[in-house]
Amino acid sequence: VVVSSGRDKAIMSKWFGDLPVTLVAEHGVYVRKPSMPPGEWELHHTPLTHVPWKEKVREAMQQTVAVLPGTFVEEKEFGIVFHYRGAVQHEAADSVIKGLRGSLSSMISGMPLRIIGEKKAFEVAEATVNKGSYMAKFLQQKGIPEFVLAVGDDVTDEDMFAAAPPGSYTIRVGNQISQAQYNLASFVQVRALLAKFLPRLPF
């Protein structure tokens, strides 16, 4: 069982650190295997240390935070996230957020970076960092198992669906158009599905 997220190591450890599963943080940058000591993670990505992009991106995001209440910036080791869930009711939110995203797109044009859309947030991160890249690496190391089930509710999970090997079962939570084979309406249905697998799990 692998839990893959865009969240950082600290959050993943806090939420899932006690479970005997593989944890993947920051879209595949860091990995924690069940056999590893608490708090220990493996780095699975080489940063672009020669590209000083984070300072400019951070400055642009912080300038928007200053004028749009309810927004904040989350900085990761390999990316920067602009959160605007708390600002969606603000009358100027749409235009300000679109303006920021457009400015960032121009700023990183020609650089090995991309903007990753998330729920009420978007992240600027290195282009090679994504859940699909980690899935491909994981399967290469472990071999393709007899049964693969990939479930996600975010646009960042589309890379994972695309990387899933033939014969996999891929599920997008929600009614969005997706590369996944199937859709489930909500996490309630996902829980019901996963409950059926519990008797077969080794823990």
Low-confidence stretches: none
Mean pLDDT metric: 89
Q: What letter string, H or E per element, gives the SSE order? A: EHEEEHEEHEEHEHEEH
Helical residue percent band: 25-40%
Q: Please give the alpha-carbon distance between the first and last residues.
A: 11 Å
SS content category: alpha/beta
Q: What share of the residues does DSSP label as strand, in percent?
A: 15-25%
Q: Taking strands numbered 1, 2, ... along the chain, how are they ordered across the largest sheet? A: 1-2-3-4
Count of distinct strands: 11
Report the principal-axis shape: globular
Largest sheet: 4 strands, mixed
What is the CA-atom radius of gyration, in angstroms?
18 Å
Number of helices: 6
Concise overview:
The chain has six helices and eleven strands. The protein is α/β, with parallel strands linked by helices and 203 residues long.
Notes on the structure:
By secondary structure, this protein is of the alpha/beta class. It is 32% helix and 22% strand. The protein contains six helices and eleven strands. The strands form three sheets. A four-stranded mixed beta sheet has the order 1-2-3-4, with helices on one face. Strands 5-6-8-7 form a four-stranded antiparallel beta sheet, with helices on one face. The chain has a three-stranded parallel beta sheet with strand order 9-10-11. Helix 2 (54-67) runs antiparallel to helix 3. The longest helix has 15 residues, at 93-107. The protein starts with a strand and ends in an 8-residue tail after the last helix. The model has no long low-confidence stretch (mean pLDDT 89).
